[in-house]
Design a protein that fits this description.
mainly beta; about 270 residues; ten-stranded antiparallel beta sheet; 1 helix; seven-stranded antiparallel beta sheet
């Protein structure tokens, strides 16, 4: 009963917030459709700003992630960060997986990507740090084997969240989305309320909600210890598109800044 009540309260809060946003907020593009001049690149083994192998590129009003200029993948996980951090916002984008997975990448990266948020500033990451301290809305596609593989999941490099009223230290938590097969466009949305409620939406359906994102836990290596204060709530951070071995396209990336619109009371 307590679990059911908690979920109902989360849903009610989200609906209220979204109603306020529609009345007072406005959508702004994060991607201009022409270039990535408003974005920072950080790729493992490379300094911030080095777009190794032209990993992130623009074509036909899309941000594309490609590996045709790579040799061995060598765990060169990458992220493309928008230039400024956000705290309270509604993010929308569309993604589609394309082409073949890069075969020297880890096998778990097949048809796997995501968008990181509440991320540390990429300029605070040492060259050999593999993942940013952040929360991830993970994107997956079906493997063609008939088994469910939901998208819009939560993963947590160097972080934890509160899920269903309790601190949850699992690295990834599956959403309730259906499985999307093949090279189709999927619409993903995030409603982020600082260090409070976070909602994942896939193709119009709410598929996951949780709260209190905070620093803590593993799955991030060779970071600057000054950046990892375990237990610290994450109320803001950078938004980043992920590269981890699977070609993917992103388009129609826009944001509604809710700062000053929603009630910040927890």
């Amino acid at each position: 009963m307590i679990k059911k009540l908690w979920c109902c309260l989360l849903a009610a809060t989200t609906l209220s917030t979204y109603a306020q946003a529609q009345e007072k907020g406005k959508w702004e593009p994060l991607f201009n459709g022409k270039d990535i001049s408003n974005w920072f690149v950080k790729i493992h083994h490379h300094p911030t700003g080095d777009n190794y192998g032209n990993t992130f590129r623009v074509k036909d009003s899309m941000i594309q992630v490609r590996y045709d200029q790579y040799g061995d993948f060598n765990d060169q996980f990458g992220h493309l960060y928008f230039k400024q951090p956000y705290s309270y916002y509604h993010l929308q984008l569309e993604y589609r997986f394309v082409g073949e997975w890069y075969k020297s990448a880890p096998s778990y990266t097949i048809l796997n990507s995501g968008v990181m948020f509440h991320s540390q500033d990429p300029r605070t990451m040492p060259m050999e740090q593999d993942w940013p301290i952040s929360i991830e809305m993970q994107f997956l596609a079906g493997l063609g084997d008939g088994k469910p593989r939901p998208t819009g999941n939560m993963c947590s490099p160097g972080t934890h969240i509160v899920y269903q009223g309790k601190l949850d230290t699992r690295h990834c938590i599956n959403s309730t989305s259906k499985t999307y097969e093949g090279e189709q466009w999927v619409k993903a949305e995030l409603i982020v309320l600082g260090d409070s409620l976070i909602t994942h939406i896939i193709n119009g359906d709410t598929v996951l909600q949780y709260s209190k994102p905070q620093i803590g836990g593993p799955v991030v290596n060779r970071y600057d210890p000054a950046q990892k204060t375990d237990g610290k709530l994450l109320s803001s951070g950078f938004i980043a598109l992920q590269s981890e071995g699977q070609p993917i396209d992103f388009r129609n990336i826009r944001i509604m800044n809710l700062e000053g619109i929603v009630n910040r009371k927890k």
